[in-house]
Amino acid sequence: MKSFLPFKSTYLICFLFFLLYSLLSITRHNNYNSFGFDLGLADQVVWQYSHFSLPITSIHFYPFTSLLTDHIELIYAPLGVFYWIWNDVRMLLLLQAAIFSFSGVPIYLLAKRKKLKTPIATAILLSYLSFYGVQNALWFDVHSAVFGAAFLSWFIYFLDKKKLLWATIFFILTIICKENLAMLTFSTSLVYWWITKQRAFLYYAFASLTYLFFIFGIYFPHLTERGYGYQNTNGILSDLNLFYLFDTAEKRYAEFVSVAWFGFLPLLSPFFLLPAVGDFFSYFVIANQLKEAQGIFMHYRITIAPMMTFATIMTIAKYKRLNNIYVAGYLFLCILFFQYTLHLPISYIAKKWFWEKPAAVYTINKVLTALPEQASVVSQNNIVPHISHRREIFTLWPEKKSFTTHSPCGKKTCAWFRWGGTPKYLIVDTANEWDSRHLLAPREEYIAGLQNLEKTGIIKRYKQEGTTILYKVQNP
User: Fold this and answer.
1) How far is the C-alpha of 427 from the C-alpha of 475, rounded, in Å?
2) Residue 50 sits in which domain range?
3) Closest Cα partner for 179 from 287, 59, 104?
């Protein structure tokens, strides 16, 4: 009974984090702060899979294209089954929170398997579940990498136990989440082969390399129209300069916070940091030109969580003097320090603004009742995820348009928009609460673009409540 109680507490901790992350993500979505290009796109694809349809997305910058030409995120196919239970985007948010939160179970089991005492195993579990990359990812809509990071934790645990059937299952689940995750299964398998010399682990490494070669050597360059869009200009293996691992303050800060979150303990065993270095290598070197993926925010650091946790467990198992309650307390203080200094999403729950529902939410919800079900519609970024269970839902992309005559704004170049397809409706909201993250343009420019469309007769007002307007689109 004594040995069972700590493990029972582990489930409780995982469940509490599930509640926290569900609350954060669903409240964000209900308040129209989620984004169409992230949550809406994933939701539409999962909805398509739930109807046994191809993952064609109309929300993308390139509408009516398969998501598989952008990312290989096959994990969304089996997730479609859950939409048979509740056909709502919030089901996807709940799934993400649950699958990741309960991936803390293999983390705790691995720590105990390595003879770590309960206080420090619990501290490592808390470090993993509250990691800055985890909080930012689960706050920022839905991403396949979150599922991949969760499955990777199970893969590591079953590798360590030499349960090859289960390891294989989670190996497959990991690599189908996103095209670059096979790099992590490769590096992790090599580490285990090196410390155990068991040939079976080389098979996982070989399978990972084979998958990577097919995806990046054959599939993207030869079987898709645009190739892989998340690499340096001249190709996946071009410009492999190791200096890129540390060449900006943003990269160095991300690396610093990643090891500091675990009290710098992983630095004591550099060998076990190789998988984490590989993850940084994929984003900082191979995708050096993808600047938005190199900081501590959004979802890009989620896969560092299992890598750093693994390195911390192995380090404490190696240096047995660290296996004590004082180091557990030290790890817990590191969590509190960075939680406070970085103002991470879990702290939002204590903020008044988090619980305040914008007034525009009520008018948007009211106007949406006038939108016919399955009607073809174009909308702004933060409204898209609320109406994405349809074949034709387009993102409203702001742009400029030149006029030689009859300029609606009295200038040669006017604020304008573009969208895919021929939608019958346009729904927007111009409330002060929304900024360029929601509108994809400065609010004043956004409003000017709508006025220009109205002046030219392209859109006509059909229903309005407050700042929310439903237009009928006069497509040529």
Assistant:
1) 15
2) 4-352
3) 287
> Is the CB of residue 463 less than 8 Å from the CB of residue 367?
yes
Query: Is 257 in the same domain as 375?
Result: no
- The answer to whether the beta carbons of residues 58 and 392 sit under 8 Å apart is yes
Residue (of 36, 82, 83, 74) closest to 54 by Cα position: 74
Q: Which of 352, 387, 402 is the last residue of a domain?
A: 352
Cβ atoms of 468 and 427 closer than 8 Å: yes
CA separation for the pair 155, 168 (Å, rounded): 8
What's the structural domain count of the chain? 2
Q: Give the residue carrying structure tokens 């470090």.
A: 127
Euclidean distance between CA atoms 402 and 407, whole angstroms: 8
pLDDT per position as a tens digit, 131-149 = 999 999 999 999 999 999 9
Q: What is the pTM of this model?
A: 0.95
| Packing angle, helices 132-139 and 144-161, rounded to 10 | 140
Token duo for residue 469: 């307007």
| pLDDT band (50, 70, 90) for residue 2 | very low
Q: How many CB atoms lie within 10 A of CB 397?
A: 17
Asked whether the beta carbons of 138 and 24 are under 8 A apart, the reply is yes
Q: Are residues 276 and 300 in the same domain?
A: yes
Angle, helix 325-342 to helix 249-260, in steps of 10 degrees: 140
Confidence of residue 476 (pLDDT cuts 50, 70, 90): low
The two structure tokens encoding residue 255: 């690396």
| 396 φ/ψ sector (left φ>0, alpha ψ -120 to 50, else beta) | beta
**Rg for the chain, CA atoms, rounded:** 24
pLDDT in tens, 296-335: 998 999 999 999 999 999 999 999 999 999 999 999 999 9
Average pLDDT score, the chain: 94
Looking at per-residue confidence, does 4 or 301 come out higher?
A: 301
The mean per-residue pLDDT over the stretch 35-39 comes to 89
What is d(CA 11, CA 262) in angstroms, rounded to the nearest whole number? Answer: 22
Q: What is the pLDDT of residue 6?
A: 63
Residue 169 DSSP SS3? helix
